[in-house]
Amino acid sequence: MKRNIALIPAAGTGERFGAGKPKQYVEIHGKTVLQHTLDIFAAHPQISLTAVVLAADDSVFAPEAAAFQTAAETVLLRCGGASRAETVRNGVNALLGLGLAAPGDNILVHDAARCCLPEAALSRLIDQAGSHPDGGILAVPVADTLKSGGSDGRIETTVPRSGLWQAQTPQLFSAALLQRALAAADLGAITDEASAVERLGIRPLLVPGDSRNLKLTLPQDEYIVRLLLAQK
Ligand code: CTP
Ligand code: MG
Question: pLDDT tens digits for 104-131?
């Protein structure tokens, strides 16, 4: 039986957010951002295991925290890399190498900083892409008008937005496919797992995401994330 395993890259430093510590450790409503994210997966009945990939030198994460202990099906991997893609590659290799994942299991890669993922969106991804050999990602159709800008700060042209989607996470692929895609990819050039898979000539599914599934990136994102987490 194919299992669904969440892989949470949490080895970033949060430069743009600028909290003086990695943004996954910022506390909102009494819990860290990372803990909010872990709780989403721990509560989902179709997720068998959650693996968190930390930076090797991470000294902030406290495995003795009460909330972490309650998430029984969680493993910590201290093998984060210099880029998000490297962190994910190391995490997938560790899961397979340690026998925690089988090649046919689904891996759902999800940003630690995307702590407001609605349960329904996660269910939708598993239902629509979980049995598909090419996998799939959550994404939302682009809503705003898109402009291509010149180096002089002026509009070059308006880019038709029809058919354009904004990629979110989770991104779901079989462990074997994800490992193969990341081993083949120039990791400096990829910003999500799907783009590594696309380079193999495979076209993953676009599964409707949710605009509330935003990533804590800039300081001004915290206000909305606070409101969204208060709704839960
Ligand atoms: N990430 C990671 N390993 C890295 C870089 C990023 O695991 N070497 C993770 C982050 O912890 C985050 C996710 O990838 O959960 C999305 O990346 P991003 O939003 O860019 O986070 P940071 O890289 O931490 O932020 P910044 O780019 O502003 O420094
Ligand atoms: Mg980054």
Answer: 999 999 999 999 999 999 999 999 999 9
Element (H, E) at 131: none
Q: Which domain holds residue 155?
A: 4-231
- The CATH number assigned to the domain holding 140 equals 3.90.550.10
Strands (E), 12-154: 27-28, 31-32, 49-54, 74-77, 106-109, 136-141, 146-149
Give, for ligand 1, the residue of 25, 84, 218 to mutate: max count of ligand atoms closer than 8 Å to Cβ.
84
Structure tokens at 148: 């291509």
Q: What is the pLDDT of residues 137-166, one digit of tens each?
A: 999 999 999 999 999 999 999 999 999 999
Q: Is 14 in the pocket of ligand 1 (CB under 6 A)?
A: yes
Handedness of CA 207, 43, 51, 228 (dihedral sign): positive
Ligand 1 pocket, residue 81 CB under 6 Å: yes
Ligand 1 within 6 A of 82 CB?
Answer: yes
> What spacing in Å lies between the alpha carbon of 53 and ligand 1's midpoint?
11
